[in-house]
Amino acid sequence: MSNKHIVVDPITRIEGHLRIEAIIDENNTIVDAYSSSTMFRGIEEILKGRDPRDCGLLAMRICGVCTGTHYQRSIEAVEHAFGVTIPKNARLVRNLIQGSLYLHDHVVHFYHLHALDWVDITKALEADPQKTVDEAKKWAKIAGTTPWVADSAKFGEVQDRLKKFVKQGRLGIFAKGYWGNPHYKLTPEQNLLAVTHYLQALDLQRDAAKMMAIFGGKNPHPQSIVVGGVTCVQDLKNPARIGLFKELLKGFRAFIKGAYLPDIYMAGTMYADEALDGTGGGLKNYLVYGGFRLQDNGFYKSELLFPSGVVVGGKYQEFDQEKVAEDVTHAWYQGEKPLHPFEGQTIPNYTGFGKKEGGIAYLDTKGKYSWIKSPIYDDTRVEVGPLARMVVGYVKGDKRIGEYVEKFLKNGDLPAKVLYSTVGRTAARAIETELMADVMMEWVDELAKNTAAGDLSTWTEFDFDYVSKDAKGYGLEEAPRGSLGHWVKIKEGKVENYQAVVPSTWNAAPRDYKNRMGAYEASLIGTKVAKAEEPLEILRTIHSFDPCIACAVHIVDTKGKSLGEFKVNTSCSI
Ligand code: NFE
Ligand code: MG
After folding, report:
1. Could you tell me what percent of the chain has a pLDDT over 90?
2. How far apart are CA 378 and CA 325, in angstroms?
3. Whose C-alpha in 102, 241, 496, 499 is 20 to 30 A from the C-alpha of 42?
4. 65 C-alpha vs ligand 1 centroid, how far in Å?
5. What is the pLDDT of residues 109-144, one digit of tens each?
6. Can you say whether residue 105 is alpha, beta or left, with left for phi > 0 and alpha for psi between -120 and 50 degrees?
7. Nearest to 109 by CA among 372, 433, 524, 424
8. Nearest ligand (C-alpha, residue 546)
9. Ligand 1 binding pocket, CB closer than 6 Å
10. Which residue lies with its CA nearest to atom 6 of ligand 1?
11. pLDDT 10s digits, 65-108
12. What is the pTM assigned to this prediction?
């Protein structure tokens, strides 16, 4: 039997347009893989020539999923360029807005985008609701908590809803799942427990959106952040608004502890084989720009919740933004060599697809094959995201991250090596969600205390006489999916160059000038698939990164001229 060439396009349950091509050998093992963004869009180019104070409002439109994060980074890049330090209230509000995004994104990702890679929803129909209570108690106990739901009537009710749904034959978004695939490993009761939490998380996620809106003014796309600080003055003057934020946070945190973490222990245990053999581990080089300032001592001097750093080959090194570069050898852009973002270029050069066989056009993998550029750090390919944050924090000796990671491994009686896998990437996201919810309780109390003590300052006045000034700056943070940076160069008061190098650019990128794989590509190599025509394992690993392709590609042609035409094959075929 010869190798099979699989195309999964589009990858669903993500943001944007992502295509994965994989070569599977006669043992059903993935031996080669390519990641491609098939959509051309973006923002960097339209920022050129603008007033730097307007960048945030435009840059935020890069994405509505990691909503507000591009807005904040863009504003911070301009603040950095002009040396503006924001007041304490502004720092705390920005942390709380971004923290709400983490809680929202991570819970929605786990339940609504990723869970069905682990949970066979059809098997929940066979579950015994009473035994499901035992199951809920068991995993909550391991997580050191009490279960979010432990009521057989509730489980029975969910099962009835599911039965009605199936009987009507309107499976909707569940119609095309690979139900019954041998690589689904949960018991019927475990499936019912997860489906119950899935439905409850649908309701609950609204609370995280409300939290962002309390200080952000709205969600998605908050609008209370400006160069110099924040504008939510009335909300800070009103203790009831801060109190409401805390109430919503408390409720959301209870779900994280009573449902999300126990479900991660359950899935991690049932899929332990895959975690132990390192399925989906990929590059195993990790980068963190660093994020969430804990002090008010100015730019890039503060202690951070997620410390910056790089772990390559298991060894820690300091992060230096000078070593970030983007290469376009295999991306549909013009360019000769990797460029630092201050010098970065975005010149489209669409060269189309490669060979066509049996009616399917395949990517030209020897040439250019994606709209995503290839970021490189110090001539190394790296992964970013929750796993990178936990690994870098742990290896660097960060006390808080060390405690959360160790507690997680100890409670589950798991060796650290489980983290270097698809399961581990998913677990790392849950670990940091709990950490974030706990730390946000501290921040909201700090905010209440500070305002009650009479500090209502929200904005630092500064001399914006930049018309005569040339400057450059960067806004570096940790977005939910990983390291996010905006670099801005200002000349005579206008934006001269603007580049964003963001989480999904790092992870979803194609090969680079040395033909080295990006993080998605590397993570698929060596994975065994149960059935080549049901690429469940590909979805599982790709989803573990929580792809956002809108973020990864951010170009538009402002003159409206045609940049090339191509058709996207929307069938998943061999
Ligand atoms: Ni569009 Fe995003 C996050 C950013 S992914 S979701 O998190 O930046 O690149
Ligand atoms: Mg970019």
Report:
1. 84
2. 8
3. 102
4. 7
5. 999 999 999 999 999 999 999 999 999 999 999 999
6. alpha
7. 433
8. 1
9. 15, 63, 65-66, 69, 479-481, 484, 502-504, 548, 550-552
10. 66
11. 888 999 999 999 999 998 899 999 999 999 999 999 999 999 99
12. 0.94
